[in-house]
Structures are given as C-alpha cells and as structure tokens.
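Quick one, T. Sequence first:
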Amino acid sequence: ALLFAILVGASKLLRLDLGKTWAIATLRTVVQLSLVGYGLGWLLGSESLALRLAVFAAMTGFAAQAAHARS
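Structure tokens:
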C-alpha cells in the first residue's frame, strides 16, 4: 500500500495522470495472486496424485508454449 501511495503521489506531482491506471493494475494483481494462491492451496491439499501430475503437465505445457512464442 505504501508503494502504491508513493507511485500515485509521484504521478500527481509529475502530472502523469496514471493514478487510475495503477489502481486498476494493482487491484487486478491482488485478485489474480489471491486466486492463484487459493488454487494452489486446493491443489496441494488434494490427495490425488493423478490430479497433481495432470495440473503440473498442463502448467508445463502452457509455460513451454509461452516461452516458444516469445522466441
């Protein structure tokens, strides 16, 4: 929260008008990280090894695809 306040203050001081953009980006980040945290908590709490392996394989596939697209 302190870093966000500093960024908004600097934006106003420099008349960049980025406060609203940063507020939306901050909110999206908090929501996304919360959902990932709950999802991982659910996954790691699961007793199913097959489910864990399937999710691991899917995550690895998506990461490989994203890395390939950047190269």
